[in-house]
Amino acid sequence: MFNSVMKRYVVSCAKHIAAVPSQSRCLSTSPATCKSNQPAGDAENNANEGWLKKLLVRRIEPTKEQHSRMLSDKEVIYELQTHNVRPDSIDGYLKNYEQAVQLCQKIPNLQYELIGSWSVHVGDLDQYVHLWKHQGGYAAIDKTNDILLNNQEYTKLCNQRGPFLRSRHLQYMLAFSFWPNIEFKSGSNIYEIRSYSLKPGTMIEWGNNWARAINHRRSNDEPFAGFFSQVGRLYNVHHFWC
């Protein structure tokens, strides 16, 4: 099997940190439950067909090809920032990061989109997690870093943030193709991040098993995002649940 080590965090949206502009959000709703007018036989056939769709998913066979090419789109790269903040500096940190997000949204031609920011309430306390999206592969990341490093206002905010932090970590990740597309949830929600360290060589097996399992949880609108690491700690998997 996977010989995985799992870490679980319960997180909630950080209210003080600016998120993506409202016009870029979409609302995910569950279909209303209503009485069906179709014959009982048709309803039973549809139910059986639904179960078959959950069980019959595309299986990826292990090959010599890189697992990242088979499990994901390499043109869209996600950046996971983990910041461990000093307990006495949380207000200053949140204000500083909000200003940095607002600045990034104003810089023209910057393909750097904030997907979400969370504060950890169970697990590593005083920790904040930020998920960013790069469109255009690693070339886009190089371009983004070059633009930001040459922006005096941005570098000033980064320097001011240093005293607020105890430590920080960054990973570049790819999204699993079998997970649902990321859709922003309305209202106040609790998110759970489950992180796994896999045994090398088991990523394809992991993907095949979760491609079947994820279908059983879609009806509850729980899956938010699923990623595997590319740069940083390798053989890491992160599942975000809402």
Automatic annotation (TrEMBL):
Region (Disordered): 27-46
InterPro entries on file: Dimeric_a/b-barrel, NIPSNAP, NipSnap_domain
GO terms for cellular component: mitochondrion
Annotated GO biological process: mitophagy
Pfam families named among the record's database cross-references: NIPSNAP
Bias (Polar residues): 27-39
Residue stretches making up the NIPSNAP domain: 78-135, 191-242
Family named by the database record: Belongs to the NipSnap family.
Protein name (database record): Protein NipSnap
Organism placement in taxonomy: Eukaryota, Metazoa, Ecdysozoa, Arthropoda, Hexapoda
Gene (name only): Nipsnap
